[in-house]
Amino acid sequence: MALAVMILSAGCSDRHDAFGRFTRLPEEGWAYNDTVRITASGLDSVASPKNFRIGVVHDNDYEFRNLVLEVTCRTGNRIRRDTIDLELADAYGAWKGSGLGPEYQAEASVSPKVMIGDSSEIFVRHVMRTDTLRGINKIGIIIEKP
After folding, report:
1. Which domains does the chain have, with CATH numbers?
2. Which of 30, 35, 55, 31 minimizes the C-alpha distance to 135?
3. What separation, in Å, do the N-terminal and C-terminal C-alpha atoms of the chain show?
């Protein structure tokens, strides 16, 4: 009986194996020194390996073929930093992402099996050679159990 109660109470937990959140960027553009900070919430409190992807929503005003991002994940005292080169268009300028209407969404894997738990912080900034990027509407993260 006690085992059944423990199993049922574990099933009622508000903790999840996945997390996703997108942040809208300013309409005037994404400045070089503006870092987007996203705190993972609702995950298990003990950090465990997770698949980690970055997502970008852009429109036709984006003037480059790719987007280079620096992604930093901080879990407790552990810091992991990756640079992602997200290809948004092919050699002919056709957008690769999916979407309806004027916006397109593209995703890229940041790193397989990153140690992420509840309250891990993710910092994203662009490292393009321009002061302000126009046409990037949202930036987000997707975290899933492997």
Report:
1. 16-144 (2.60.120)
2. 30
3. 32
